[in-house]
Write a structure and sequence with these properties.
With 109 residues, this protein is an all-alpha fold. The protein is built from two helices and no strands. It has a domain of 75 residues. 94% of the residues lie in helices and 0% in strands.
Length: 109
């Protein structure tokens, strides 16, 4: 191997090493691309996510409380309705009794 061939072989090896190193750097940079700006953005996203989760939890709690209040209100309304229907039935019975009494009194006279 003469001097020219050695120089060309060395240049090819160095060029290949440079290309391999550059490609490796590019791959690593591509897959681990977390810079200072990205970290700040990730912090903002994490904070926004945390606030959204808190808001969701508060909304769920509010809905559960509201549902409990409405169920109590429904139960109370049903109890009042039952009491009203019983009172109406008693009043109708009393009206029937009084109508019968008035009819008997009119029949006697």
């Amino acid at each position: 191997m003469n001097r020219t061939q050695l120089i060309i072989a060395t240049a090819i090896v160095l060029l290949a090493a440079f290309a391999l190193g550059w490609f490796t750097y590019w791959l690593l940079h591509r897959f681990t691309r977390v810079a200072g700006v990205d970290i700040a953005e990730m912090d903002l996203l994490a904070q926004a996510l945390h606030e959204a989760e808190e808001t969701r939890d508060q909304a769920i709690l509010y809905l559960e409380q509201r549902e409990a209040e409405l169920m109590d209100q429904i139960a109370q309304t049903e109890a009042e309705l039952t009491a009203t229907l019983e009172s109406l039935q008693d009043a109708r019975s009393e009206v029937d009794d009084l109508s019968g009494y008035i009819a008997r009194i009119k029949a006697k006279t």
